[in-house]
Amino acid sequence: MPDKYKAVWVSHTSMSDFLKCPRAYYLKNVYKDPKTGHKIQLMAPPLALGSAVHEVVESLSNIPTKDRFRDSLLQKYEEVWKKVSGKKGGFHSKDEEERYKDEGRMMLRRIIKNPGPIGRLSVKIRQDLPHYWLSEEDEIILCGKIDWLEYLPDKDAVYILDFKTSKSEEDESSLQLPIYHLLVHNTQKRKVAGAGYWYLRLSDTVSEKVLPDLEAAHDEVLAIAKKIKLVRKLEKYDCPQGDGCFACSPMEKILRGEAEYVGENEYRQDVYILPEKSSEISKESDIL
Question: What mean pLDDT value characterizes the chain?
């Protein structure tokens, strides 16, 4: 078996970055600041909101079903929010922060009132970061965290659930479900019986999706992963527009010194924010 530390690791997020712009992929997934040795992250309010809500909800999967709502989700949210409060979350004013924070409260109240699958049995994959060899021959590993796996006792199967905090629905061409289906199929033994998105801003119930075909998903994901590996080998991370696009331009501002450093996050990334009037990062980060 090849060395996993020398392999190319790909995920839904990194592949999405690559498909938007190889230069954006490089800046978000490869580049390290030569002064600190850290990767860089550009923070914005939609990203901060999504991160906080996901952390609260996903933490419930570690709790037995009968005890899951014993402690207040809103109190947990208050504690989690401290990680993204102020400039750490890309907020430029108290009013802006409170508007976003209140949207998160609304989503959590929706879950409290209509827990649906959150109130039922769940499965937790034992790997901290689920991953498997997408191709040993090509030395490529597919990885990613699944928001929630509901356990279906009548079928001894699992149901893939992804929480959405954005204002728009996931594009039908998204690789997210194909990648999640591959990951769940290859990192635990139970059959995958279904999948869905829960748009927490928009609905009390889960939006059912058709499970992607595993073989077709494997072929599609591997083809893109091979392109990523080739680009990494050649170190040719060109923006398709040449002079910068919506995906890479905000990140380029960090390198040009036009972004404000606000600290280091729990993943040891250097976190930056853009000036208040920048619209590029809002557009880029509202897809969660």
Answer: 93
